[in-house]
Amino acid sequence: MQFTAKQISEFINGTIEGDADVKVQELSKIESGKPGSLCFLSNPKYENFLYSSTASVVIVSQDFVPSQKTDSTLIRVADPYSAFSVLLEKYNEVAALTNNQTGIEQPSFIHPSAKIGKNVYIAAFSYVAENVQIGDNTKIYPQVSIAADSVIGNDCTINAGVKIYNRSMIGNRVIIHANTVVGSDGFGFAPQPDGTYSKIPQIGNVVIEDDVEIGSNTTIDRATMGSTFIRRGVKLDNLIQIAHNVDVGEHSVVAAQTGISGSSKLGEKSVIGGQVGIAGHLSLAKGTQIGAQAGINFNTIEENKQWHGSPAQPLRDWMRASVLFKQLPAIVKRVAALEATIVKLNEIIENNESTL
């Protein structure tokens, strides 16, 4: 599908500089722009690509001043990155319309007691157990398993290989990517006198609220009792472990390979970097920001505070410590030299005392 620069500018409330009638049919990065493509420039370090690019249209900021001539049509906006995100969303909507599958493919199993909404797509080799409810316009892709008494809302996308355990509750407009597991047993085992472990039954469930997106190969454990909560607007990356009874606050973002131990609660709008470890039964304040590979073993009270390192510490303290850490080899040499000097001084003092 083609759009003119004028049409694009109307989508994003931009101002055109150049040929308003030039047409584009694809989106691309500024470094790989070519005729018929639309790019954006938001980071000044990529400006040099603008002058070598043959992209038909480039979105730039309102105050951008090119240092060289460019043949591309420019569309000036307040925030190029946000404007390009809007266009990506529009592109995705058009793609969805052209691939608007509905119906139930075979072979698949749908229990007679399951309630399936309007315009639902269930791909081949999927399994829908008893008393499951699936809302309108939801798409279930191949080899998805939805266990008994689970509820999935409207306009959801459940990608291939996802496993949803019984009594899971999933809201509207939720996207779950391939091979994620929702509702597996929490890691609960009671030590016995003979050194063995007895499994503690996990009788709770998982509740995922509206507008959540969950990456591939993430696991969200059911609660021991009650519910594990993924609140409205949360975005989870790939390869994340959410343990039993965790509560991830609204509009929080968690990056890949993070592990959140049981019964911990993340305040709303928290930002968690990759490979972060959060111990159990903790409470993190609203807006807490945790740097990659940090280890959190304490509650945070101050809102919107940054933590780094393992064990974690406030950002400024961590930055100072990082500087000192780099100096440790030189400090060790200096200390060794001082110790040698002290030994020599002690020998001199002892020799002088012995001659008196």
Helix content: 10-25%
The description of the largest β-sheet is:
12 strands, mixed
Q: What overall geometry do the principal axes of the alpha carbons give?
A: flat
> What is the number of independent domains?
3
Q: Give the integer mean of the pLDDT values.
A: 93
Proper CATH architecture of the largest domain:
3 Solenoid
CATH fold name of the largest domain: UDP N-Acetylglucosamine Acyltransferase, domain 1
Could you tell me how far the N terminus lies from the C terminus, measured between alpha carbons in angstroms? 102 Å
Q: Report the CATH superfamily of the largest domain.
A: Hexapeptide repeat proteins
Oligomeric assembly: single chain
Strand content: 25-35%
Radius of gyration: 29 Å
Structural overview:
The chain is of the alpha/beta class and 356 residues long. The chain has 3 domains: 3-98, Udp-n-acetylmuramoylalanyl-d-glutamate--2,6- Diaminopimelate Ligase, Chain: A, domain 1; 103-314, Hexapeptide repeat proteins (UDP N-Acetylglucosamine Acyltransferase, domain 1), CATH 2.160.10; 325-356. It has 4 helices and 40 strands. A 12-stranded mixed sheet has the order 8-11-14-17-20-25-28-31-34-37-39-40. A 10-stranded parallel sheet has the order 9-12-15-18-21-26-29-32-35-38, with no helix packed on it. It is flat and about 105 Å long. The model has no long low-confidence stretch (mean pLDDT 93).
